[in-house]
Specification:
about 100 residues; mainly beta
Length: about 100
């Protein structure tokens, strides 16, 4: 992270561009998208940025996806997978379609 409070989106360990966002009553805020780089596991600390890399918020992730053959819930997802991420301590208006979920 540099002094301008931006992150170089090409220099991260994990990156997902937010395709959709939604809220489930009693659960929280979710985002969906395809993992462009790296892997993510439940309870990883993530950073939410806009498309320029400007930091918007820090959050804790809970990963959800299902294996198509077995429909088992898994806790780690890898590059090129389409997933849903539940974000703790965030409200729906704090994230937008096109934002990035990253791990530095």
């Amino acid at each position: 992270m540099n002094c301008s409070n931006n992150i170089d989106l090409d220099d991260v360990a994990f990156k997902l561009k937010v395709d959709e966002k939604f809220s489930i009553t009693g659960r929280g805020v979710f985002v969906t998208g395809k993992i462009a780089l790296g892997k993510i596991s439940s309870n990883d600390k993530v950073i939410i940025t806009d498309k320029t890399g400007k930091i918007k918020k820090n959050a804790i992730a809970r990963v959800e996806f299902f294996c198509s053959s077995k429909m088992e819930q898994k806790n780690t997802a890898y590059e090129s997978m389409n997933i849903a991420i539940e974000l703790k301590d965030i409200i729906l208006d704090e994230i937008a379609k096109g934002d990035y979920i990253i791990i530095k």
